[in-house]
Predict the structure.
Amino acid sequence: MVFDKKKPGNGDIRVADITVFQLSHGLYRSTACALKELVNNAFDANATEVRIDTNFPEFDFISCIDNGEGMKAAEFERYFTNEGIGACMKREGGNYETGKYNRPLIGKLGIGMMSMGQLCNSFEIESHYIENGEKGAFHAEIVLTDVGIPDEEEIVRTPDFKGKDVEIGKWVYEPIDFDEREKGFKVFSTDVKKTFRDEMKGGMELLAAEGKSEKMSFHLADLHKRFFNNSKSVRDCKPYLETIWELETLCPIPYAEGIDRYPINRKAFDRSSKREIEFSQALDFLKERQARLKAYNFRIIFDGIELRKYIQLPAVKGVIPRLYFFDFNDTVYMSKLKFAGYIFAQASQAIKPLELSGIQIRLKDVGIGAYDSTFLKFYEKIETIRNRWVSGEAFVDEGLEMALNLDRDSFNEHDEHYKTLQKEVHRKVHEVFIDIDSIGRAKKEEKNKEKQEILIEKLESVVATHTKKKFVIRSKPLGKENPPLRINESKKEIIINTDSTTIGKKNADNVYRFVQLAYEVAVRTTQPGEDVKPIFSDILKTILREVL
Amino acid sequence: MNYYINWDEEFPKHCVRYYGWFPAAKSYKKLLGDKDIKYFTLCAGEALDIFTFERGGILSRDKQRKLPNVVICERNRRLAGQIYRLVRPPLKEAIIWNDIRSLLLFSEERVREKKAEIESMPGEISAEKSSEYRGLLRAKDQLERLKRIFPFDIVNFDPCGSMLDTSFGENDLYKSFAKFFEYQLEATSFLLFLTTEFYGINEDNDPIFGTAFNDNVTQHNEIREALQTFCEADSYETIKEERKKNYLGFLKAAILPAALDLGWHAKHQGVFVYENSHRNPMMSSIIEFYRENEVRQSEESIDDILNVIKKWPSFISWDEGENDKKARADLEAVKKYREAVRNEFRTS
């Protein structure tokens, strides 16, 4: 329609091609998020295996090769000659499943392949496919950065820029012979971005300096020993391993073998916890989920390592673990929303590795963003230390897709489905925090009690030594308002006030009580004319050294 | 159009591995004693040479089941990934993916020229924006990596293409082959498998081969006599067996000068001409290069030429290769072994 500023009017809202530019040059938070998009495409194409290689430790080559149904030439044409990037046909005809292995369809926009644009300046694709019984294959090169291809800044600076017909790259297509052995889709590049290479290599150089890269293992279990045993955070393991970790956490693959250990380590729970209904519900749910993930029949092999979700809760000893379950299945804003999940909490130590603290939202079994340590902005009680004791996963099987942002890594927080999910998570998290708070407090009290007993024992010993065993030493609560020591000369008895010698923060009050105690013992036990100072000093030194 | 030949079914080629490369490598390994063999190869996606040698105990994996002493150069980007997954190459260097020509013939001057060319274009264009320029920088980086790994004990110079389809003095493949000797300078000896297309030989090469070889014939009676006895010829031009003629010319005009100029001298352990699946002849020679004093060097080269005249090249036709039961059985065993290794890494 023609716009006339002097007349009222209306019309359709259109999107300028420049917006597509961004899609092809990087939308994703991290390397793993970009790779996740390629993996999702393989999953949707019914591949049973996708192999990612980075030419570790040089990182000058990236390839992602699957054995799925491949990209049809018609799809290539649609993307690159007709409708452009984002013209996805996956859900045409109301498809919500891939048609094999009971897999839900993940993609909907058709921008996944372009995630390579975030890691490379140019890349190649090769596809061998069968369409309606007809075999086809092609090879194509996609160049996004080269002389003659303007960058975003150049485009918007162009004086006659109209926002349309923007050239964001070049492609070269070549039909090739179909090869049954090569069936599937391949995307690979040697024109890797320097930033990617430097980031990955940088980490390797640090490992090499520590003599660790030589010991780099290609067994997933060994790599995970680093996360669980040697590091507080996955980030300590440098970007390459962090990428592996992130990718396995995000992708629709099973947990590591041994459902009695992954993701929930049952052995760590005591009998009473195991008798909790929620414990059984959560475990039954995870068992069913693991069976579903296995039934997808989908493997990711990253530089030769077959990835599995290596989540183990708890991964440390000496904690009190608890497991909770939540689910939701209802119509929200006229469409179905269905999710379920578990929350794990441990008192009183942080979850290891740190990246697991929070809640991971999985949409159709694909992680969206990282574990959210704010629990979807749980403001009711801004937790700090205890946030790190809690980890959970929420699996959304129906709904919420409209809330998903373009980067498939975050949600539109004003979406009704998102709001409902948030509310349910907050409700559960609130319960968990109350529970874990009381467990934590009880644990702390018990621990303090143990410490108190040791403290009193030590004080008795110190006082007995300095009074040269002329007094009988006893301990009993005499009230916090009373001095730390009562001496009964006639009974030759010293009573240590346990109320006045509590374990707690080493604050001024406590120190004062110990000084007072040392003074009382010194004064009461020195002979007339004897200098009290050295005895006082000696007792105080002993008490502080032994007790604090 | 298929990208590459299925090497798993190139039977005459495996005869060369089985009857030529493997026994030579085994003897050479024995000669070196306990030393781990450092192996350079242009092995293609199937990596049959690597698995032949690994299976035969010439190459061994480390505790992490990697082959730390194998360096692979591959120009096909898709195959580079395939080889990486299959072979699990050295930890530090990984696969060097590039054309051996671009790599070994890399020059800083070319980088400077390209940079100047791009920056002289209208507008403010950074050279890094050019894929061609980025390619040159990558080659530079890869060559640096490769230089750090030299020298090798066994070199499998088995590139795609021909050293002889143009005048070899202008042939990039030949030039990169000659360059290889420079980078090998720190070694005292090494074993070379040199393979090239042996058809479509450029006419310009023939007179060069003739002149080079005839010099030997006139200067050394023993060569002249051997030529008469074994080839019924008295000069390069009169050698009737085309394959022998071409190889002797190539040896005298191309291989030996590249080596001798840098102090290496040669000892042939086999020369094979075999047919590929397109029924085109290919040549693969097995030569041990080593250093000795200069007097012996000259003598040994004559001995080596005499050896070639007397014994080689052996010819393996497609049919012979296809029907060679021993080599076929070995090929199957190597493939089976490769599959076992592949399966070993399938899950971690």
